[in-house]
């Protein structure tokens, strides 16, 4: 999805009523959002997969494919499953609202609607989506390792590891680039910020200490690649 922290959030509006589209587009643009419009369900699915918008404002009564089916297919597709959906529809009965939420909508607003409420709900959904994305970006979870980059904390099979800041940065980098060989020079640059020629035994010493803290069951995850450097291997790769 588009990076809403550095650019305008992109909203896909799916509705076949020109008056509604004009109003929604005007209000969303006024709130600092980029708007894409589609008038039928099939086009909406195609655009969602191609453009990966930050939010979809979705009518239910659409040509070619109804909004309920659009929402189901969005949720079933790995590429679009996380895109928030705000249903905006004339179906305003409680049963309709419940049905919409059950098939995966994040919120539900009935027509006729307050433009101000539409903006408030859209902004709230975008905030929640941004917060969730930030949490995903600060947490690494691999084969029993859980690395919280925000709190500088690592747990292994639920056990907190007592790591120095340098050991944390070293392990984090190895896990982030798991499967790839990282040379000692590259590790010195990325972990220690050394740009000049420094004794690479510094890396070896820290890797040895890190392996000791991982314990015998997991120390082999940090694999020595002779003449090259080190590589973090996952359980599937090491079996």
Question: Can you describe this structure in just a few lines?
Answer:
With about 240 residues, the protein is of the alpha/beta class. It has helices at about 20-30, 40-50, 65-75, 95-100, 115-140, 165-175, 185-190, 200-215, 235-239; strands spanning about 10-15, 35-40, 55-60, 85-90, 105-110, 140, 145-150, 155, 160, 180-185, 220-225, 230.
Describe the structure.
The chain has nine helices and twelve strands. It has 239 residues and is of the alpha/beta class. The strands form three sheets. A five-stranded parallel beta sheet has the order 2-1-3-4-5, sandwiched between helices. It has a four-stranded antiparallel beta sheet with strand order 6-7-8-9. Helix 1 (18-30) packs across helix 5.
Regarding CATH, which class of the largest domain?
Alpha Beta
Taking all residues together, what is the mean pLDDT? 88
Identify the CATH homologous superfamily of the largest domain.
Response regulator
State the order of secondary-structure elements, H for helix, E for strand: EHEHEHEHEHEEEEHEHHEEH
Low-confidence stretches: 2-6
Count of helical segments? Answer: 9
Alpha-carbon distance between the two ends: 35 Å
Strand-helix topology:
Elements: E1 10-14, H1 18-30, E2 34-38, H2 41-51, E3 55-58, H3 67-76, E4 85-89, H4 94-102, E5 107-110, H5 115-138, E6 139-142, E7 145-148, E8 153-156, E9 159-160, H6 165-176, E10 182-183, H7 184-192, H8 201-214, E11 222-225, E12 229-232, H9 235-238
Parallel strand pairs: 1-2, 1-3, 3-4, 4-5
Antiparallel strand pairs: 6-7, 7-8, 8-9, 10-12, 11-12
Helix pairs in contact: 1-5, 2-3, 6-7, 6-8
């Amino acid at each position: 999805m588009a990076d809403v922290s550095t650019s305008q959030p992109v909203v896909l509006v799916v509705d076949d009523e020109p008056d509604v589209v004009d109003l929604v587009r005007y209000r969303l643009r006024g709130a600092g959002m980029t708007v894409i419009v589609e008038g039928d369900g099939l086009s909406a699915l195609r655009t969602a997969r191609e453009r990966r918008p930050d939010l979809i404002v979705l009518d239910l009564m659409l040509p070619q494919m109804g909004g309920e089916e659009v929402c189901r297919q969005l949720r079933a597709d790995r590429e679009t499953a996380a895109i928030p959906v705000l249903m905006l529809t004339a179906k305003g009965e409680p049963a309709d609202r419940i049905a919409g939420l059950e098939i995966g909508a994040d919120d539900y607003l009935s027509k006729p609607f307050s433009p101000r409420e539409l903006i408030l709900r859209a902004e709230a959904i975008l905030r929640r989506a941004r917060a969730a994305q930030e949490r995903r970006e600060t947490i690494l979870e691999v084969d029993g390792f859980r690395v919280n980059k925000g709190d500088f904390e690592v747990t292994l099979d639920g056990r907190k590891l007592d790591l120095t800041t340098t050991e944390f940065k070293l392990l984090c980098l190895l896990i982030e680039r798991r499967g790839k060989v990282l040379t000692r020079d590259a590790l010195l640059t990325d972990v220690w910020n050394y740009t000049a020629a420094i004794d690479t035994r510094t890396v070896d010493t820290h890797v040895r200490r890190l392996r000791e803290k991982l314990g015998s069951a997991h120390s082999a995850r940090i694999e020595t690649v002779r003449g090259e450097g080190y590589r973090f291997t996952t359980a599937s790769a090491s079996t």
